[in-house]
Amino acid sequence: KGFSSTFTGERRPKGDRIFEALGTTDELSSAIGLAGEFSSEKGHAFVDQLYKVQCMLQDVGSNLATPLSSAREAHRKRTAFSEKPILELEQWIDSYSEQLPPLRAFILPSGGRSSAALHFSRAVCRRAERCVVPLVQAGEADPNVAKYLNRLSDYLFVLARYAAMKEGKEEKIYIKPEL
Fold first, then answer.
1. What CATH homologous superfamily does 3-167 map to?
2. Of 19, 65, 70, 129, which has the fewest Cβ atoms less than 10 A away?
3. How do the domains of the chain map onto residue ranges?
4. pTM tops 0.70
């Protein structure tokens, strides 16, 4: 009938922005899974981090599926989202960034299959963040969820560059077309 239930039992239309955010977060996890498979084929050690991110995205989904406007304290405790995973992402970003050459131009999604899939994941992550921010602003989701997605997109960008470097693949840079 076009409705679905949140974790709190509240019935909402399937077009509700909560379900849009949940669907986009699920799509993000799928994109990261694909990137992880390509990266695993190349023997990248960071594949375990991608799996951990996918697990965190389940927690993101739990938080989003528990609108604060209808959540009881038991719901809030069970689906709380802490700052710890955000700090972990920042450590990972710093670790990979230190190993990369400085960025001197805009990079196009490229650099081999692992890198391109990570760039695609980053784009999906940014869309997920755009879906989540209005929920946070409306007081329906934890602000740490939006912060996590924000840092996750940065992590995926740095990781895409790192994968290209480790695989010896060239990153294509933006060149302004002559008009």
1. Cobalamin adenosyltransferase-like (1.20.1200.10)
2. 70
3. 3-167
4. yes
